[in-house]
Amino acid sequence: MLDPNFLSIVRCVDEGKTDAIFSNDKNNGLVSQYVQAGRRIYTFPMFTEAFCGDLIKELDHFNQSKAPKGRPNSMNNYGVLMDEVGFTRELLDPLLFNYIRPLAKSFYPNEASCLSSFRAFTVEYSPGKDTELSAHYDDAEVTLNVCLGTNSFENGDLVFDGGVRGFPKQKSDDHRLRLKHKLGMACLHLGSHIHRALHVTKGRRVNMIMWCRNPHFRLSNGCALCRKKDQFRLEPDEKKREKIY
Question: How much is the pTM?
Fold first, then answer.
């Protein structure tokens, strides 16, 4: 399920060897980091191709069922709320608390100091459905974006324009970062990073998104969208967490 390189990354973080996961050559390092214009954006392998395929099959099966379904968010019309499929306890809770949280905390000590809740969903882009998404920021302190596939899609890159919430976007190409989606690859970024999805011209692209939230950070900074203080569900008891592999 989890890419061996991703497990190596988390192991380095657990052992306090964060520097070991980076390489000056972003094509060879376990994690690629993009820090131009003050950004802190990271990409790394996360899911195996086999798991991505299995997950897509489950999501498609759910979509074809008569079970009630909600929209993933106010911006996307196509996708699945992961909790409605029943993935929270066995998949997403362990994923956040055992893997993403320690990794995010090492990259974002303030924003990810105590990630304790999340909203997880998929988004789908293809001609005839949603094909792109305009510039926005997320209702999250930290966002995880993982490409699940499926067939040979074209274009649809993820673009960061260099701005963050409360500050204007940068217009020059020097501040722009454009990432191509690859099967099983994840992008970790701050929810306040202004970003957009370019037009998918062919095929079908499905991504899993986790909006990871830190109530302690919000007490002093407010939520990413309305700046109000929110209440979230408590994180699972330590004894109820399970490792996933």
Answer: 0.87
Closest CA to 212 of 101, 102, 90, 63: 101
Contact 130, 123 (CB under 8 A): yes
Q: Give the whole-angstrom CA distance, residue 128 versus residue 226.
A: 32
pLDDT in tens, the chain (245 residues): 999 999 999 998 998 887 777 755 555 567 887 765 557 899 999 999 999 999 999 999 999 999 999 999 999 999 999 999 999 999 999 999 999 999 999 999 999 999 999 999 999 999 999 999 999 989 999 999 999 987 689 999 999 987 776 555 555 445 688 999 999 999 999 998 999 999 999 999 999 999 999 988 988 887 777 777 655 444 555 555 555 55
Place of tokens 């997320």: 138
